[in-house]
Amino acid sequence: MEQYFQQEIECASYEKIREIQSEKLxxxxxxxxxxVPYYRKKMEDKGVKxxxxxxxxxxxxxxxxxxxDLREAYPYGLLGVPKDQCVRIHSTSGTTGKRVIAFYTQHDxxxxxxxxxxxxxxxxxxxxDVCHIAYGFxxxxxxxxxxxxxxxxxxxxxxxxxxxxxxxxxxxxxxSATILCCTPSYAAYLGERMQELGYGPDDIPLKAGIFxxxxxxxxxxxxxxxxxxxxxxxIYGLTELSGPGVAFECSAQNGMxxxxxxxxxxxxxxxxxxxLPEGSQGELVFTAVDKEAFPMIRYRTRDICTLTREKCSCGxxxxxxxxxxxxxxxxxxxxxxxxxxxxxxxxLLNNGYGANYQIVVDRVNNTDTLDVQVEMTPEMFTDxxxxxxxxxxxxxxxLKSMLGIKAKVSLxxxxxxxxxxxxxxxxxxxxxx
Length: 433
Ligand code: DLL
Prior knowledge:
Blueprint: H1 7-10, H2 14-35, H3 37-46, H4 67-72, E1 88-91, E2 101-104, H5 106-122, E3 130-133, H6 141-153, E4 156-158, H7 165-174, E5 179-182, H8 184-196, E6 208-212, H9 218-228, E7 231-238, E8 243-249, E9 256-258, E10 263-268, E11 282-288, E12 299-305, E13 307-308, E14 320-321, E15 326-327, E16 332-334, E17 337-339, H10 341-350, E18 357-364, E19 367-375, H11 385-403, E20 408-412, E21 427-429
Parallel strand pairs: 3-4, 3-5, 5-6, 6-7, 18-21, 19-20
Antiparallel strand pairs: 1-2, 7-8, 8-9, 9-14, 10-11, 11-12, 12-15, 13-14, 16-17, 18-19
Helix pairs in contact: 2-3, 5-6, 7-8, 8-9, 10-11
This protein binds 5'-O-[hydroxy(phenylacetyl)phosphoryl]adenosine (DLL).
């Protein structure tokens, strides 16, 4: 039988949801006007006043917020409450000097955890489950969000964080974990290692997985489900809006329900910024109507997807988003970590290399690989193997500290990368997702 964490709201009628959204939106716009001078200025520039916003139908009148605004207002410029009312920060995994930092009041954390609890129950979780959380804990939102949600459901929670794969498997076996939360690529790797250790699906106690933070294909879902003998559910979210749980999959495994009582979703044309009708593919824009500390209004996610209001067999009425199909900017997500080509470029240039480089991303055995290929300058060029290895080691170390993940480095002879006459092709993404 379908389980809900907050059935009344998760299954509310469309009219009821609109009513709740309108009421909260009016309040939120006033809150932001009064407390966030940065956004108030944006409203003034657009000639919009709080009185102009009477319901969700007026949403389109409000200005957008983008990652560039977040960087400009870094770190405290978008705070909606005094700092002493904030109890936590989280931050995006991408580091460009100025990271995106999101703030939370206790109330914000509470509602975020509710969203994650909804996701866990939609995946079949109850208080009898043992929930193994292998998302990273720390500034990344994955671990903390699902941890809070798991507590709310009443699961026995295992906050193991990521890494140390054999230990993860030992805990899953010894504690008879039933729900696994991690990135889909890590789930695939865990599955592979379990196979190597001789465990078939029947030896693995897990029944469900809640996988997100990066794009993954339907094929990958099927493969993980088969290896571990589980049902694998998608979960979506972003730091700016709290973290995981903005949307989640239900038993139908056919699109993710957006928690519409907290987040109003729109799809826009990323070029014209025009709002598109239901079913159109475009950029996902969210308005967080409950967030106190970091109240995002019309935040452009850069994620490209579609929305549908078709009836869902699980009984939930909240709008569903399809899997994000790509991003309208250049950010790469490698092993769940956000990587900007510009960060790699910075490391290369800081080490005396030119801008002749290529970033080759692939997926080998279900794990993302990152190969940074860069030409040596004629001055550096040598056939002294020891010297080349030294250089490679130095670059790998610097890339690891900039990106937080390991990259392979290939040093090439000068002029070996094809020059481009138009825009340079920096990223070769061979992953088929
Ligand atoms: O990845 C939050 C999260 C943690 C979601 C754990 C799900 C599970 P950020 O690091 O800020 O936050 O990255 C947000 O990741 O804009 C998408 O491009 C991408 N993303 C997140 N979930 C999915 C998903 C977390 N299910 C960015 N499918 C977002 C595809 C996803 N892309």
